[in-house]
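Subgroup meeting minutes
Present: P.N., E.W., G.H.
Scribe: E.W.

1. P.N. recapped why we're keeping a running log of single-chain structure predictions: easier to compare across weeks, and new members can see raw inputs and outputs side by side.
2. G.H. added today's entry (287 aa).
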Amino acid sequence: MAAWRSVYSEAACVFAREAVERCAPQGAPRARTLLWTCARLASWGEQIGLETHGDVLLHPSVLERYVVSGLSDLSLATRRTMRANLRYVARHGAPALAPTRPAVLRRDTLKPPYSDAQVAAYFELVAHQATAERVARLTGLLCLGLGAGLDASDMRLVRGSDVLTRSGGLVVVVRGRKARIVPVLGRHHDALGRSALFAAGGFVVGGDDEGRKNITSRLLATLDVGRLPRLEVPRLRATWLWCQIERLGLCALVHAAGMKSSSRLVEVAASGHAPSEEALVALLGGR
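Output recorded in log:
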């Protein structure tokens, strides 16, 4: 690092050496990257009248201003990398200025899907409930989760009149914040149709008030599943998702494209034109 030189001023190079030395980088490539990044920061600071001292240039607010204005000529990916490198240098070169790092919060993971045998056992269990109302409500809950992939907030607003036969299949009109039309998998048409007929203009999963909370939790709390796993709405939705992933060949696409994150895939898909309702029914097994 003592022999490192750059096109930037001597003051910028001195700042870069002193800051990077405190980081004790492993390997020459890593050291060169940090040196160039810090020297460019110092050069930008000189242009706007800042002193080339760590307490000034490595301040969090200065770094954010630099990323926004000083790196505006670079790609977003490069700017993200340089900001990460500068924050790394700041944690070692000016630890008193670095804000406390937040605790790591575990990301929600997709629930494991139910097996075909478990799904059949749940339907058998629900069919033997004590009242026709419980049979209809629980059957509707199973079908909305397994057949349409709805979560609890979606199910809460589905009325019997929202289950419609059209576009060559059976669809559910989902209302609320995530309003949409969802085709129902063909294997669940008859069961969901009976539950919707029972509910008529009322809610398929029960209740009278649109603002009611945790309706699915209360409905499932009294269901004695015996040796079966606990019945959970997120796992019903996960089962539907896995069914569609297999049908659409999504696993093959992700592996062939070398994707490691779902965000890019969602961005690509969201930028295309939404298919017609008839095409959606045919594609998602709703016939």
